[in-house]
């Protein structure tokens, strides 16, 4: 059933509404699982490839920078294929990226691991460029943040599971492993590291098979297609200065929102180790951050729009993030680690509120382009953890979190703009 990009699908209009929500929710589960595996890959590759801490954060850089590189090509491809076919293509690209882990593991090449992460991120870019505006349009705009929060539950459920599952596979008995490696040298150590590197082959081949199966099945799911529509009087029109400025602000908001989210999830394991926690425990800390995000999403679903608007939730979340960031810098030891996990609660509503605010008033071809521009902002997940790693090396892991302060200050500013633009 073709659907205009400017249309809203109400449950009374389409009896497939619930099924569509469930299908799109499965994609957000995929986003979460693939993205939050990185929290386990960082300490894993740091050991297997003998990396410094800042080098390990190239995992997040390679994965999230693909969003910036591939977002505009993804938008152009979606204009040709449509959203639904584009989802299938994105899944196939993700499968190819997962399969790249096989030669990377066999050669223990960090570069090939990064290439595999970049390709996987590229496929996820195409998938997200299609799915994010899709769920935004799958109902009234005033409840868009609520729908995205439901998708966030799917995403963060996968995020909670990913470190636990992958950590038990590729970092099992990690404290004993690090002690064992410390006693080895020369050829014996290299052989053990080669064996460790190959532990990712089976799980990533399984993931590749799953993505390929879903890519085939999605073609038979009968999702309504969103096709570009150019409203009368807008053919050939150029973006206004106001709209361009809104794109820039929306891009920057996504940049910081994703940056602080990835920082909270992907650095907490190393931060726990910094404060003396064993790797067997520290490797699962990302699940606590994601659990806090889950609580935030459930709170958003309950309160929006009955008690507070999505804009008010955006403002409150940004302010909470700023307060928790200050506590991370000031509190000692494990109390500071707990605050990093609590950032998940503050970050939960950021993405959900930014999308409808940034895409407000866009239709047809402009919607696809606007979505691609916002997706490019996910580069924040590539750059902020890398900056954090450099700051940690220059000072220490705790003081490096000062990078959170300007991030939340901008998000507070953008949330205030959204309240004025109602």
- What is the number of helices? 21
Say which CATH homologous superfamily is assigned: MFS general substrate transporter like domains
The level of helicity is over 70%
Low-confidence sequence ranges: 1-13, 228-237
Q: How many domains, in number, for the residues?
A: 1
Which CATH class applies here?
Answer: Mainly Alpha
Give the neighbour order of strands across the main sheet. 1-2
User: What is the typical, i.e. mean, pLDDT?
Assistant: 83
The coarse silhouette is: globular
- The span between the termini is 32 Å
Fraction in beta strands: under 5%
CATH architecture call: Up-down Bundle
How many β-strand stretches? 2
For the biggest sheet, the summary is:
2 strands, parallel
Q: Please state the CA-atom Rg, rounded to the nearest Å.
A: 21 Å
């Amino acid at each position: 059933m073709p659907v205009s990009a400017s249309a809203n699908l109400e449950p009374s209009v389409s009896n497939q509404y619930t099924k569509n929500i469930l299908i799109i929710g499965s994609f957000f589960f995929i986003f979460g699982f693939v993205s939050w595996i990185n929290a386990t890959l960082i300490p894993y590759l740091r050991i297997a490839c003998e990396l410094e801490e800042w080098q390990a954060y190239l995992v997040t850089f390679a994965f999230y920078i693909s969003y910036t590189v591939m977002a505009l090509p993804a938008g152009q491809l979606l204009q040709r294929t449509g959203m639904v076919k584009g989802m299938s293509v994105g899944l196939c690209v993700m499968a190819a990226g997962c399969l790249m882990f096989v030669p990377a593991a066999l050669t223990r090449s960090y570069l090939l691991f990064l290439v595999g992460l970049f390709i996987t991120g590229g496929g996820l870019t195409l998938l997200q460029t299609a799915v994010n505006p899709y769920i935004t349009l799958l109902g009234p705009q005033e409840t868009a943040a609520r729908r995205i929060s439901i998708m966030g539950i799917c995403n963060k459920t996968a995020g909670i599971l990913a470190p636990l599952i992958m950590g038990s596979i590729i970092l099992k008995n990690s404290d004993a492993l690090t002690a064992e490696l410390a006693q080895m040298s020369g050829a014996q150590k290299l052989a053990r590291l080669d064996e460790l590197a190959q532990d990712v082959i089976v799980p990533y081949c399984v993931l590749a098979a799953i993505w390929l199966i879903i890519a085939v099945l999605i073609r038979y799911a009968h999702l309504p297609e969103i096709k570009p529509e150019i409203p009368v009087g807008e053919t050939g029109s150029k973006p206004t200065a106001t709209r361009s400025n809104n794109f820039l602000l929306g891009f920057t908001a996504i940049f910081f929102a994703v940056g602080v989210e990835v920082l909270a999830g992907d650095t907490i394991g190393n931060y726990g180790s910094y404060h003396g926690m064993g790797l067997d425990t520290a490797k699962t800390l990302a699940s606590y951050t994601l659990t806090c995000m889950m609580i935030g999403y459930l709170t958003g679903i309950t309160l929006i729009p009955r008690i507070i608007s999505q804009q008010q939730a955006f403002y409150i979340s940004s302010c909470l993030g700023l307060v928790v960031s200050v506590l991370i810098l000031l509190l000692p030891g494990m109390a500071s680690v707990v605050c990093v996990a609590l950032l998940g609660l503050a970050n939960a509503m950021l993405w959900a509120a930014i999308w409808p605010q940034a895409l407000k008033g866009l239709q047809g071809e402009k919607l696809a382009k606007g979505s691609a521009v916002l997706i490019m902002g996910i580069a924040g997940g590539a750059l902020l953890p890398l900056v954090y790693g450099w700051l940690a090396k220059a000072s220490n892991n705790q003081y490096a979190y000062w990078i959170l302060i300007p991030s939340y200050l901008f998000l507070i500013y953008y949330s205030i703009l959204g309240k004025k633009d109602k």
